[in-house]
Amino acid sequence: ALNTALSLRRMGVLERYNVEMIGADATAIDKAEDRALFREAMKKIGLETPKSMLANATDVKNADRKTHEAERAALKAEKPENLDAALDALETRWNLGEGDRKQRYISHGMAIAAQALDHVGLPAIIRPSFTMGGTGGGIAYNRAEFYEIVQSGLDASPTTEVLIEESVLGWKEYEMEVVRDKADNCIIVCSIENIDPMGVHTGDSITVAPALTLTDKEYQMM
């Protein structure tokens, strides 16, 4: 929903219909949702983020789409006797080729994933884009599992894309409830510490407030 709202904002739709986003500044949401912007923001304040890389076939897809659009334009320029039938036939061929294109996109994504493995290392977390309930994703502890999960994720993703991240299993997990104004004044309402480490869902973990094992320096840094 956030990404949809941001896309509509970039397209000028919100401004055209005088729609305002409430609850959070769009620029701040952009920084949280866009991985590159988030990484840059964390770097500016001296915080590391887990290594990550997207494996997809965006370039290949765009090239295919441009070729298809060029074929449509060329067909219209020819002005055949029955243009509608010719365009329908072109669309039919395009739709019938979806399976072959999907396999090419998966192969392309797998090649990028191999590069990501060298960058991220093992264990690695694989998250397919736009799937529900973690379908197609998982944690890979060795190369065989990695390629198997990536292929499954690319196949499950309607955009043929997976996010490959450095595993954070075993890291400590904290939450900070913060009230912040436009002048960047902050009030920490409370700090919360998960008893279980990363890898156990927050909803399944016991939490304590305030956090108990943070040093004052760590607390102030957060």
Can you tell me about this structure?
The protein is of the alpha+beta class and 222 residues long. The chain has three domains: 2-44, no CATH class; 53-166, ATP-grasp fold, A domain (Dna Ligase, domain 1), CATH 3.30.1490.20; 174-221, no CATH class. It is 49% helix and 16% strand. It has a four-stranded antiparallel sheet with strand order 1-4-2-3, covered by helices on one side. The chain has a three-stranded antiparallel sheet with strand order 5-6-7, with no helix packed on it. The protein is globular, with a radius of gyration of 23 Å. The mean pLDDT is 88.
What characteristics describe this protein?
three-stranded antiparallel β-sheet, 222 residues, 3 domains, Dna Ligase, domain 1, alpha+beta, four-stranded antiparallel β-sheet
